[in-house]
Amino acid sequence: MQTTFRGKHFITLQEWTKEEIDTLLDVSFDLKRKFAMGMETNYLKNKTAFLMFFEQSTRTRNSMEAGIAQLGGHGNFLDTSTMQVSHGEVGKDTAVILSRFGHGIACRNCFWEIGNKYLREMAKWSTVPVMNLQCDLYHPMQGIADLMTIKEKVKDTNRLKVSIIWAYATSHKKPISVPVTQALLFPRYGMEVTLAYPEGYDLPDWVIKQAKENAEKHGGSFKITHNMEEAYKDAHVVIPKNWGSWVNNQDDAVIDDLLESYKDWKCTEKMMSLADKDVMYMHALPADRGNEVEDSVIDGPHSIIYDEAENRLHTAKAVMTLTMGGK
Ligand code: CP
């Protein structure tokens, strides 16, 4: 078991070995059990994590804040519009100073072609672990919670048919970071991953290449289809979720002709009936109800969205415990 994590950055799970991810899952399950039993888990007593947010959040912010409190430490929420970064202070200066004040820096910055670079810049200069709370490319906190949720439902993930399916939404132009993270991670656990999306919503070529390499190395599989029905057919897990057309179109506009031409890419009871009889419906949330998914599906018997969201807490605590504490 890999046990040396202190100071390790958590920017993408691609940079964590499978052995390290297995330890992360193990610690997550342990923390979940202890939380259920009301046990004290003061693994980060008197430690401070700085939680920088360039964007809105419900699950990520609160799993981190509640999580570090439950670990005996303190989370300092930072709305970046009130920080000097909004006046142009560079990532280096912010990272060096926050490193001197505390024990971890976590950041959400989803601006296309900026977010990941900003995190990398902070990681270069920080002397404490930098944790990615979602950037333009990756959402590892979501990915590890999704993996934990699947593993607690099915135990053996080998040959599990998981479909990551684009869905229509109008709420905002969402990052690609959730499907990218899932496409890269799930094949490492032997899953048969199908990525389904209409023309124009491609993920970057390097993601597809790495996902296929991960599948080859770990006995999973990875394929792409532009046929929604094919993605639902016989699937054990479906993850219908919107993402923006960032790779092909960097415009910030939420609604455009391309999006409007794919209104039928919705998770409906009819689509769910094509899947395995015990299919699980997952969504990172927030969901665009009525557009991405019918209420009867997201609130129905196949939905495991609240277990998935709860696991954000246990996995966030595991990431902080291992990277900010440990040895
Ligand atoms: N899934 C997720 O990251 O949710 P929030 O945007 O609410 O943090």
TrEMBL record:
Keywords of this entry: Transferase
Coiled coil location: none
Organism: Maledivibacter halophilus
GO biological process: one example: L-arginine biosynthetic process via ornithine
Family annotation (SUPFAM superfamilies): Aspartate/ornithine carbamoyltransferase
Pfam families according to UniProt: OTCace, OTCace_N
Similarity remark: Belongs to the aspartate/ornithine carbamoyltransferase superfamily.
Alphabetized GO MF terms: amino acid binding; ornithine carbamoyltransferase activity
Protein name, UniProt field: Ornithine carbamoyltransferase
Aspartate/ornithine carbamoyltransferase Asp/Orn-binding domain residues: 182-322
Gene3D superfamilies registered for this protein in UniProt: Aspartate/ornithine carbamoyltransferase
Residue ranges occupied by any Aspartate/ornithine carbamoyltransferase carbamoyl-P binding domain in the UniProt entry: 8-152
